[in-house]
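<tokenise_the_fold>
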Amino acid sequence: LGWREYIYWQYWQQMPGIVEKNSWDAKRPLPTFFWDANTEMNCLHHVIERAIGTGYNHHIERLMVLCNFCLMAGIEPMAVNNWFLAHYIDAYEWVMLPNVLGMGLNADGGVTATKPYIASANYINKMGDYCGGCRFNHKLRHGETACPFNFLYWNFLLQHEETLRANPRLGPNVLSLRYLDDGERTAVRQQAKQFLAEEIGR
């Protein structure tokens, strides 16, 4: 009940400007697999398939699978919000705008939530059982079988390192970049670029 009232308050506090918020300058279109669940990423396949079939996903699936992917992939915020509005049984504007643009995508610059909720495949593996049946390896940062959540995660950290370093809640994440040498940084960037071009078109 507390979260519902907080979101309702955020909606009225931020409207109408929230619909134009895009703090991470995300401009890519929503991937076509969001409409048919046709993706080899097992977590996204099952979560999207359930949303299409039932109009429902639980909180972790919405935040740490769908929004996490869209944030790290640089998907345009209102495209993501409109997809949520089209699929969920609780798809009221006042529910979706602060939850998706604010909490899920951090597009409002931290007004709703104090940090972007990004995570690698390791988190998804801990919170569910999708990784066990997936062709991608949740332990690899890059490479032919590396999970896209991993190289997108590290690519996002590299791309926004300066901004993320200024956020005290993201400090440990950014400090982890010291474990990536120049070769790994290049490999992560290249694989993320190739994946986004092939899956999204940009």
User: Anything to note?
Assistant: The chain has eleven helices and no strands. Residues 150 and 181 are 16 Å apart (CA to CA).
